[in-house]
Amino acid sequence: MSKKNGKNASSGNYEPRPEHKFSFGLWTLGNRGRDPFGDAVRPTFPPNDIVHVLGEIGAWGVNLHDNDLVPIDATPKERDKIVRDFRAACNESGVVVPMATVSLFFHPVFRDGAFTANDPEVRAYALQKTMRAMDLGAELGARIFVLWGGREGVETDACRPRADEAVKRLREAVNYLCQYNMAQKYGYRFALEAKPNEPRGDIYMATTGHYLGFIPTLDHPEMVGVNPEFAHETMAGLNFMHGVAQAWEAGKLFHIDLNDQYPGRYDQDLRFGSANPKSAFWLVKFLEDVAYDGPRHFDAHAYRTENCEGVTDFARGCMRTYLILKEKADRWNADREIQTILKEVSAASPSVPKNGRYSPTGAQTLLSHVFNKDAMMQKRLPYELLDQLTVDVLLGVR
Ligand code: NOJ
Ligand code: MG
Ligand code: MG
Questions:
Q1: Which of 126, 130, 139, 283 could form a disulfide with 114 if both were Cys (CB 3.0 to 4.6 A apart)?
Q2: 3-334 fold
């Protein structure tokens, strides 16, 4: 994307700044375009180079899985040098590490899952690997630790004694990691990331809502929240923003993965806002309206047809679209006609009995009130107009 596109003549400045808290995973810019049917199309993008590019294009943070940075079989000496050099690259580029995570899905040893695998040795290894990834993240300054259980699932339900056993194993693991967090005084907040399927046929904890039900059953629920991903909920045909809103309302929106996705397909991880700009608009509007102050993490990658230059275009595009939609959200909020309609559709007529908190007398009043349904039906709900005004804002004619 050329520099001239950074500015919009009519209004906004769409240059990302640190206060926007835009972050990318090493695995996103580093994605080499491999898919189940085809090999890599782009050369390896070394982590320290990724950090420099992120610094240049105005991103604020970089996230990583343990093995995005440190090869799984590195010696302690090799590990320490890699981490030292990476820290130096982050410092030089002015890029922070807000979030760390662990790969419990790439190595074949996790073919039957990690925390939920049948083999107790695999479960123990998964815990050890996660604790080491927590050590690594803490060393780099991360305060959010994401757990995505990509392999925590099945192809056939024959392979677990009972499905609720998997939930118990997962709980045991997260409880253990919370204890480790406290013992080490790392101060992490864990963010659990749901996905309905892929790479497993079915993954336990298929949606953010599943995790919101699971978290209160933990020993330290206050330490654990969610990391909803746009693509993952959209794969399940759900309204992503609604899941985010519920997480927010529960005080559990610890992190967010922004990308895009066409429903009913494999996990596409498309550039943010590229497939469903209207859904992306409602999401950005929600995050900005509630003043969410966590990282805006883009968990996506460039098209497989792209070369290295295209990877930078992709990354710039994610941030640019977010900022454009943020500007549109301001415009929507400031639009008199839109706000008047919103006010009118929620206004109550003076005769309506108040039904806030329950009280015996309030309940009696409500029970004895006679509702005039015909009159209620006279109230207009001009949602066609409201939506068209939204489309006008989005398409830039308003
Ligand atoms: C890779 C997955 O594709 C992504 O969705 C997830 O957020 C990260 N790993 C974290 O584990
Ligand atoms: Mg993700
Ligand atoms: Mg994804």
A1: 126
A2: TIM Barrel (3.20.20)
